[in-house]
Amino acid sequence: MSFDASYNEKELNAVGTRPVRPDGVDKVTGRARYGADYNMPGQLVARVLRSPHAHARILRIDTSQAEALKGVKAVVTAADLPDLTDGDASLFAILDNCMARTKALYDGHAVAAVAAIDVHVARKALKLIEVDYEVLPHVVDVDLAMAPDAPVLDETIITKGVTPAPDAPSNVFAHSEFGHGDVAAGFAKADEIVERTFKTEQTHQGYIEPHACVASCNSDGSAEMWVCTQGPFVYRQVCADLLGLEVSKLKVTSSEIGGGFGGKTHVWAEPVALALSRKAGRPVKLVMSRNEVFRASGPTSATSIDVKIGATKDGTITAAEATLRYTSGPYPDTWAETGAMTAFACYDLENVKTVGIEVLVNRPKVAAYRAPSAPMAAFAVESAIDSLAHKIGIDAVDFRIKNAAREGTRSSYGPVYGPIGIGPTLEAAKAHAHMSAPLGKNQGRGMACGFWFNFGGQTCTDLNISADGTVTLSVGTVDVGGSRASLSMIAAEELGIAYEDVKAGVADTASLGYNDMTDGSRGTFSSSMATISAARNAIAVMKQRAALMWDIPVEDIEWKDGQAHAVGASHDNLAPLSVKDIAAKAGNTGGPIAGHSELVADGAGVSFGTHICDVEVDPETGATRVIRYTVIQDAGKAVHPAYVEGQYQGGAAQGIGWALNEEYIYGEDGRLQNAGFLDYRIPVCSDLPMIDTQILEIPNPNHPYGVRGVGETSIVPPLAAVANAVSDAVGVRMTHVPISPPRILAALKAQR
Amino acid sequence: MRYERPETLEDAVGLLSATPERSHILAGGTDLLVRMKNDDFDADLVVDIKRIAGMGEIARTDAGFVIGAAVPCAKLAEDAALVAAWPGVVEAANLIGSTQIQSRCTMTGNLCNAGPAADSVPALVAVDARVKIVGPEGNRIIPARDVPVGPGQTSLAPGEIVAAIVLPEPAPQTGSAYLRFIPRTEMDIAVVGTAVVLTRDADGTVASARVALGAVGPRVIVPDDAAQMLVGTTLDDDTLARFEAACSDAATPIDDKRGTVAFRKEVAGVLARRAAKIAYDRAGETQ
Ligand SMILES: Cc1cc2nc3c(=O)[nH]c(=O)nc-3n(C[C@H](O)[C@H](O)[C@H](O)COP(=O)(O)OP(=O)(O)OC[C@H]3O[C@@H](n4cnc5c(N)ncnc54)[C@H](O)[C@@H]3O)c2cc1C
């Protein structure tokens, strides 16, 4: 059935309210089942042996003693995961990252794994595995990795995207370039120019739940996996590809998820668990420790970014340019390219150019982290914008308003914008009471903008009407932020029934068609679109059933307020039929009633936000406290405003942690020094003020209710907002994130 | 692994002496249980001392405050006399972890864990606390300062148990204070910790002072020359500036994941100065 996804302004009843979430009771009573809370009969415990070296050739692995240990049921190495990737470089990178093949490429890289009857035996077995390494020189810093004398991680890499192509291998995988106009001419017209280099350190998503799965391979070629993931269908595809399984024979069920933020869109140890199970012939449970989570999963890029922006005295930006160097871990990827696309996306620029440079280093493979690559670019650009506003003596908000992108602007990365929210969020910031509140001694204020693309993608849902008229909704996007509530609200809205009468659940891969994963802020955007479509299809079926029950033509039936109404002079005396009435008779009118939907949710609608931050800095110790914080962001339409606010606050909290304290710290030996929450400092509750939020609703023209994704944009401005606030408080421009106390004191000292 | 909960110190010593290797004493367990989760932790015996009579009590004797080895840090704050006598020790102990941690963790565990950044240890050293040790070779009393000998290392012999920490009665007009620097607001480990104890004369000048610096060396540092600068003064700005510089100089930190050498030295001075002010003001408030 054809489905029109365009925005249609109408009064909404369920959407926009704040009901209690269906998964809440389970979560607060401890009944919710997360990755490690699932068990199978005969299950074994897996443990992974990891490289202690940042860079080393694996000369020999001897697993014989471990295999001989009583209670050990399987030991696997790369030899048990043969290369089936058929020239697909990104799939090969995943395979090699799961289990090192010829070289260990970072501290924590898996080299072998065991499955044993219990954890004690498994631990003992790990110690019996002998690995001979030839330790190689390593490099972890993004700038040092680009130096001519840097140890080269992969001798086959010749930089792409530069002409002429270099003749020697290096750690630079690729250059990418975006922009339009003539930046040289633009800078020539500028009255003032700011040019600076910024650096950001590598951070981890910091999800509280470590990666965990239970994998079970059967002798008939079928397999099952229970796993904590943001995308069961994607995990199924990748695992099937790597293990040579038939996709339909691998059933993946997603657990409740204790945070992912992008880090659970990539497979890590899941293929290893499947390989162990296949070898042992028994189910295998694999749960990472926190140390493993830090060393071997997740982190975002470390970056080094040059920015140059010029403007005339009246505050018009004449040219903007940035070169963005991003680490990707030891494998090629496109993180710098994404940063280069987002860097200037907030502004309407005549002359703009960005270059992204992908750099390989001996650190874990970089993973998506909430608006991946955008926060670092925004940090550099928004810091420079702030400096430039000071330099030409114009208010930082007015400067941004003057140059903000609007409908019809050609974005710095190519497309022309439709209706967008950057201008309105800036106007709202200007008008916000926070902006004019007085500041005390040692306090400072900063603000910054952020952009994220958002994504739609392949989606399907099933909506089944039960005999009692209640509704079950099966969706394929994992609920990471309350989407079961939001999608139930959407189904209730369309059908015209109560929210309580809809029960939404996340289906496993055997029960529903393919869905892209919950990433790109797509969960509510795309699954709500599919839910609306499925509900409308179910309504069409119910109208047919009512026609049968009444024995009138279906054209004479209208669906209103959750009921079928007969219209037309000959039968408008018929009492309306409710969902319940129709469902009760389903057995006699054609069987079960359902609505299905399979679609590609196009037109996700780009998203913008503006943040305001106040800090107080102790000038003698560099201790920084965030004392007030405001998030203003366009949601298109806030389906469940409390969860939209939660996304705004969560992104801000993570961004504040990144801005002030979070960083991967490597020793001289290339080993990670702080693989735990004691020394990898995410903010605790008392570190943060209440984060105020303001939701703007500029409808997305490509969604029936105007919804845009809201999950990621909120982490884009905080690095810059905090940096601008600290710089304001201490009077020195802070250019290196995290802006930790030692960096603040050092900057103050350098200025004295 | 065996878990034992003896009811007497003699039994505890006996158990530990019989298993000199790979045996551990368990007080609050907030360090030990965390270590036990590591893949490379092995133990044959864990002896829980919380059942032993008197271990959970604070007694005020002629020797001063005798704090049993299993007294949780939260209990220290409930003892009004102790809080009045040694606020610097109580505030240090009550910075450890969180409410949940404090209802379990002990100062003895903090001391015997021998972590260079332990919060209560500089405070104990500044008040010149003693520890009562029982062991297979008999009992002994040593300064708390001499228990940790290096990171993770103590001077305790196999089979020896700290039975209590003893804080002396403070002289009249004595004040104490502890300040630490952490990048966050709580649930963090000290990057610098400073404890100051000082006693005032009737005219308000400092009669004696003791300073202890934590997390800026493998063991607590006691910069006596810096402390001496305070004696005979009323903590005028000049004195405090010299004192601050001397404390910074005395600190011997390393560059690590928690801070740089320059940062730690500088902050050690800043916090020592601030702690001295607090201790001085507190000394003025006591009789
Ligand atoms: C979340 C968290 C936060 C923390 N925050 C802080 C903090 O802010 N500041 C800080 O300093 N520490 C902190 N710690 C560490 C820990 O809580 C403290 O060191 C605590 O004081 C240890 O006391 P305990 O009684 O729990 O020690 P236990 O774990 O029981 O023992 C510690 C060590 O001392 C030995 N030991 C215990 N009792 C005796 C005895 N009677 N005789 C001889 N040896 C003994 C044990 O064998 C063990 O080696 C934190 C720990 C956690 C888990």
Automatic annotation (TrEMBL), chain A:
Cross-referenced Gene3D superfamilies: Aldehyde oxidase/xanthine dehydrogenase, a/b hammerhead (3.90.1170.50), Aldehyde oxidase/xanthine dehydrogenase, molybdopterin binding domain (3.30.365.10)
Organism: Thalassorhabdomicrobium marinisediminis
Domain spans labelled Aldehyde oxidase/xanthine dehydrogenase a/b hammerhead: 29-137
Keywords carried by this UniProt record: Molybdenum, Oxidoreductase
GO molecular function, one term: oxidoreductase activity
Span list, region Disordered: 1-23
InterPro entries: Ald_Oxase/Xan_DH_a/b, Ald_Oxase/Xan_DH_a/b_sf, Ald_Oxase/xanthine_DH-like, AldOxase/xan_DH_MoCoBD1, AldOxase/xan_DH_MoCoBD2, AldOxase/xan_DH_Mopterin-bd_sf
Protein name: Oxidoreductase
Keyword Oxidoreductase found: yes
UniProt superkingdom: Bacteria
From TrEMBL, chain B:
FAD-binding PCMH-type domain location: 1-172
Alphabetized Pfam families for the sequence: CO_deh_flav_C (PF03450), FAD_binding_5 (PF00941)
Coiled coil, from the record: none
UniProt-recorded Gene Ontology molecular function terms: FAD binding; oxidoreductase activity
Oxidoreductase is among the record's keywords: yes
Keywords linked to the UniProt accession: FAD, Flavoprotein, Oxidoreductase
Name of the featured protein: Oxidoreductase
Organism: Thalassorhabdomicrobium marinisediminis
